[in-house]
Amino acid sequence: MNVWYLIFLCGLLTFLIRFIPMSGIFNFQGSELYIKVINLIPIVVLTPIIIQALMFDKSATIINSVSFEIICSVLAVLISILFKNVMITILLTMMFFLILTNIPFFNG
Amino acid sequence: METKLKHFKSGIVQELPLQIGVFPFGLIYGILAVESGLSILQSFFMSSIIFAGASQIVFAQFYLLVSPISLITSIVSINLRHLLYGISINEYIKNLSLKWRIILSYLLTDEAYAISIKYFATKKNKKFMHYHLLGSGLTLFLTWQISTFFGIFFGQFVPENINLSFIIPLSFIAIIIPMIKKKYEIFACLSSGIFAIIFYKLNFELWIILSALLSIFISIPLIKKDIKK
What we know:
Chain A has 108 residues and is an all-alpha fold. Chain A has helices spanning 3-19, 32-55, 68-83, 86-102. In chain A, helix 3 (68-83) runs antiparallel to helix 4 (86-102).
């Protein structure tokens, strides 16, 4: 198949997956249970993405040692509980992460 | 007008920190796409036609190795999580026109969703709130196009030891932790993490949607208990 056709087809399918639930065709009447389930979606979808980034290497093997990323993630959890602010959490944690990864003492 | 602009600007400002992590990802895609044999035009325009990072990388890696059907199936599987994003966003855009729904669904990516759904959930006045998703989505779109361009044309000059990708999971932590307040939310978060580890070996990111659906399913009794309180 021509590569351009393939690109357009994949683009169309990607768009449809995003569009169909937002199209208004399926407008569920929200019971309390439905609304609470919907509100869980960001938590249950983003957590696996976080776990994948922290716990697995590029060859899909689980990382056995405690990495700087895991240490900083624990710190990020604490900072975000404390400040409840995305920007502060990112800035403080990234500062700590850059210190850890760039100081030779911590890198053996 | 002022409110629209305020939401739009908030979307841009809140999305900006995540671009530090998105930019290297776009660079990697650009480098990989050209190396895989795609033409410069195909590599560049794929970023606006498909506009989905992981799918584009899979496309570039496998389009010569597998059949078109396998490639299409893989890309659909990778993007299935967007169904859940769409269902969730739909709750906040019920009064919007078809034109708006088309624009917003095109711009719906992991990073734009994560930033905007948090904003939507915390604002009581829902009017014009979709401008926030427009702002966050457009910011990511522009970064993605620019980083793809740099990856295609200047990829060979990029040092290999840059590690800014950590900022993406970090941003997601900063977004979801303040959302978790109830017992069933803690349970759903932990169980989706455990399921992610169990199912990670599944191909084409199916583990994301499977982990999400299973953790929602097993959290339902706790949610019902919370409602009865």
